[in-house]
Amino acid sequence: FGYWRPNNLKQVETRGIEVNTEWEQIDTKVTKVLSLNYSYTSSVNQEKEHEFDESNGKQLIYIPLHKGNVSFNSTFKTYSISMNHQFVGERFISSDNEENLPLYQLFDISFTKEFALKSNHISVTFGVKNLLDTEYQAIEWRPMPNRNYFLKLNYQFTK
Predict the structure, then answer these.
(1) Can you give the pLDDT at residue 7?
(2) 74 Cβ contact partners less than 8 Å away, ≥ 6 residues apart
(3) 3-state class of 86 per DSSP?
(4) What is the Cα gyration radius of the chain?
(5) 100-130 burial: b if 16+ Cβ within 10 Å, else e
(6) 3-class SS at 64?
């Protein structure tokens, strides 16, 4: 069909580390939360299918070595702002690691206003995804959306 599908069940050694941390500062008026996430994933093929197989000792396709994100959220009374930065390292698209998709970084931002309506709550969020209009592909030949906007209305019923 022209897109990647898994077709191997080889011997693979996967190892890595994942770090997640969060700082929260709660003030009488302002709450701030900063979250950091990082992962290092080494997924290396450990065997050859045949003598000309060049995937031995190479990183598996579509698995980046480095991936991470930083997010910040701040709330003041009924207003909040959220910012997110995502980093995805290069991903190989050939099992011999000769071809790759370049790394990409995405920035998102959103603003929320909450309202009380009797005992129910309403929140309205406006946001921008891919704020810097980065061109990237998560999967080869499948371009992802450029800058895009969203408006979200959330109505929460309470008993």
Answers:
(1) 63
(2) 30, 31, 32, 33, 80, 81
(3) strand
(4) 21
(5) bbeebebbbebebebeeeeeeeeeebebbbb
(6) coil
Give strand pairing partners of 147. Answer: none
Say how far apart CA 47 and CA 55 lie, in whole Å: 8
What is the pTM for the complete model shown? 0.84
Q: Name which of 144, 150, 153 is nearest 114 in CA terms.
A: 153
- The 3-state secondary structure of 89-126 reads CCEECCCCCCCEECCEEEEEEEEEEEEEECCEEEEEEE
pLDDT tens per residue, range 18-49: 999 999 999 889 999 999 999 999 999 998 88
Residues near 1 by beta carbon (within 8 Å), at least 6 away in sequence: none
pLDDT digits (tens, 9 = 90+) for 55-90: 999 999 999 999 999 999 999 999 999 999 999 999
